[in-house]
Specification:
Blueprint: E1 4-6, H1 8-15, E2 20-23, H2 33-44, E3 52-57, E4 67-68, E5 73-75, E6 93-98, H3 100-111, E7 113-118, E8 120-129, E9 147-150, E10 165-167, H4 177-188, H5 196-215, E11 219-224, H6 229-239, H7 248-259, H8 265-277, H9 287-296, H10 312-320, H11 322-338, H12 352-362, H13 373-391, H14 399-412, H15 421-428, H16 436-443, H17 452-458, E12 470-474, H18 483-488, H19 493-502, E13 509-513, H20 514-520, H21 525-528, H22 534-539, H23 553-569
Parallel strand pairs: 2-6, 3-11, 5-7
Antiparallel strand pairs: 1-11, 2-4, 3-6, 7-8, 8-9, 8-10, 12-13
């Protein structure tokens, strides 16, 4: 890695806001005036100010990315960078990936002003007291030189020490140290009440200041030339390790915020993510999911979650489509919430995007609330498809490839009146039913794991899911399945082991409504079952055995396994 050295005056006068700008992924300027004063004190004291990282954008690519100007006159009341006009720049440009705060501070100190509120709004500029002799303190936090943001050069009457406040930016008017020295000598020549040693101190400081800015190459920057925008973002994230960690989605949100015309992308996406996360029992969708949905649900956009896909033209398309995106993702989440999919069992959130795309293409108003028989059946098809797709891990591996294939499949359909599960399953290369091996795995799935609810939901095809909450429940109460209780019953280790092997699996689980679960509590199954009707027995796949006492648990499990197998085998969409 080789670095290019430049003088501060060269960067300030020839680079900043001429060929060098800020990318949209940069955060806003946050330094206070004391930070700028300390930076200039470090420069004068010959302390290093670290390295910088610039990203070279070829001229033909510059129109793809929004660039922002560095502040000259910073105003804390309106701390937002203005967008740079790159139209008249007929050459490659640079975007600063690391060093924004320091370069902005240098630019403000030398070329601009800093407006802040202290009892009243004050517009200040950076001055250096030339009569202050540089004495290095043992305290590293104490400044050696007296830089200060002030409203003017007038001495502070409450400070008895010698003062001659020099506007730091004036040093840029002189292309040689000799001219700068001569200028300050001329200005001090008329002052007769000041000791010559102070005047000489002023001349020395002016020479040092000129040298630091014009002669010494104190800015060392590395030039990143990659066209791989995701690599650039990774570099940016690694370079900006201080403070709050930047996430990939934060970078993309910054890019979107910069390029949306009428809406604030950051606020919109944050608020919408919170909104869908509050549906039903609550979810934990991230901004990544919403941004992925933006690409997926907007026509003619690439779906890969890469920075280069969030360029200006694409983001303008997303903004124009934003209300439709929100509506269809929200309806999808409401649907899955109604069907009992929760944060734990929704093992692949990307599986929701084909449903959202289908709903967008269906374009049917009030579909979510519709109680028409045809619509209800269509919703149940989506529920069943989603459960099977998640159980078969259809969205594992290369999810982008999978999503693109399903997007193509949906685009190819001529009849979208019914969710096209057959075409989708064919593209996913999955069957709508289960093999014997898959069934064995499903039957050994344990209680309250990420797949248990999905399996149980398939056993209740005629269930009324609307406005009901269903709980996973142990048919034979789990409180009885402890080694202590089993030993009390006189079971040997072999029989106890068999009971422990099966009690927590699908074969001993059912879905009960909230009221049913409260009624049942830990009542022994042989006592509770007689209180239920024949519909309950059929609905919950309860096998017929001679006696439902605890001693017959293994017989119950074996027969119920066969019923569940038959039901899952017979599943059809």
């Amino acid at each position: 890695m080789s670095y290019t050295p430049k003088t501060i005056s060269e960067v300030v006068l020839e680079y900043i806001n001429k060929t060098t700008f800020l990318p949209a992924i940069q955060r806003e300027y946050v330094w206070e005036t004391d930070g700028i004063e300390k930076l200039f004190d470090s420069l004068m004291g010959n302390y290093p100010i670290s390295s910088f990282l610039f990203w070279k954008i070829r001229e033909e690519n510059k129109k793809l990315w929004t660039a922002y100007n560095f502040f000259s006159d910073f105003d804390k009341e309106t701390p937002h960078n203005s967008e740079a006009n790159l139209a008249g720049i007929n050459q490659d440009i640079y975007l600063v990936l690391d060093g924004q705060q320091r370069l902005t501070s240098l630019y403000i100190g030398l070329k601009g002003s800093y407006r802040f509120f202290y009892y009243s709004w004050k517009k200040t500029r950076l001055y250096l007291n030339l009569f202050k002799e540089p004495i290095r303190s043992e305290n590293p936090e104490e400044l050696t030189y007296q830089f200060s943001f002030r409203e003017n050069e007038k001495p502070n009457p409450k400070d008895p020490s010698p003062q001659y406040w020099y506007l730091v930016g004036n040093i840029l008017d002189f292309d040689s140290a000799k001219k700068a020295r001569q200028d300050i000598r001329n200005k001090l020549s008329g002052i007769t009440v000041v000791e010559e040693s102070l005047k000489e101190n002023a001349v020395v400081l002016i020479e040092e200041l000129h040298s630091r800015l014009f002669t010494e190459k104190l800015i060392n920057f590395y030039e990143e030339r990659s066209d791989d925008y995701d690599k650039v973002v990774e570099i940016f994230i690694r370079a900006n390790t201080g403070g709050k960690k930047l996430e990939y989605s934060d970078i993309l949100l910054s890019t979107a915020t910069a390029k949306w015309k009428t809406l604030n992308a950051r606020d919109e996406i944050h608020n919408f993510t919170d909104e869908i996360n509050s549906i039903g029992a609550g979810y934990s969708f991230g901004k990544d999911f919403v941004l992925k949905g933006c690409l997926y649900l907007t026509d003619d956009l690439p779906i890969q979650y890469k920075v280069k896909n969030f360029n200006k033209p694409n983001l303008e398309k997303i903004e124009a489509n934003w209300e439709t995106i929100k509506s269809n993702i929200q309806i999808t989440v409401k649907l899955i919430s109604r069907f009992g999919f929760n944060d734990k069992n929704l093992v692949a959130t990307n599986a929701l995007l084909p449903i959202s795309l289908y709903l967008a293409k269906l374009g049917k108003k009030n579909f979510f609330e519709s109680t028409e028989q045809f619509d209800v059946a269509n919703k149940l098809i989506m529920q069943k498809w989603l459960a099977i797709a998640l159980l078969k891990n259809a969205f594992g591996g290369s999810s982008d490839t999978t999503l693109k294939n399903l997007q193509d499949t949906l685009n190819e359909q001529t009849d979208l009146s019914i969710f096209p599960y057959e075409a989708i399953n064919k593209r996913l290369n999955i069957e709508p039913n289960f093999t014997d091996t898959e069934l064995e795995n499903l039957l050994t799935t344990n209680y309250s794991t990420k797949y248990s609810y999905l399996i149980l939901s398939l056993l209740y095809p005629d269930r009324d899911w609307v406005d009901n909450t269903y709980h996973e429940d142990h048919i034979f109460p789990k409180s009885e399945f402890t080694l202590r209780n089993l030993t009390k019953r006189g079971y040997d280790s072999g029989k106890a082991g068999e009971y422990m092997k099966h009690y927590n699996t699908t074969a001993n689980l059912q879905l009960l409504t909230e009221n049913e679960n409260l009624e049942k509590k830990a009542i022994p199954f042989d006592e509770w079952l007689p209180t239920r009707d024949s519909n309950f027995i059929s609905r919950h796949s309860i096998p017929s055995i001679g006696d439902y006492e605890f001693d017959n648990f293994i017989e119950f499990i074996e027969k119920r396994r066969e019923i569940i197998k038959a039901k899952l085998k017979s599943i059809s969409m």
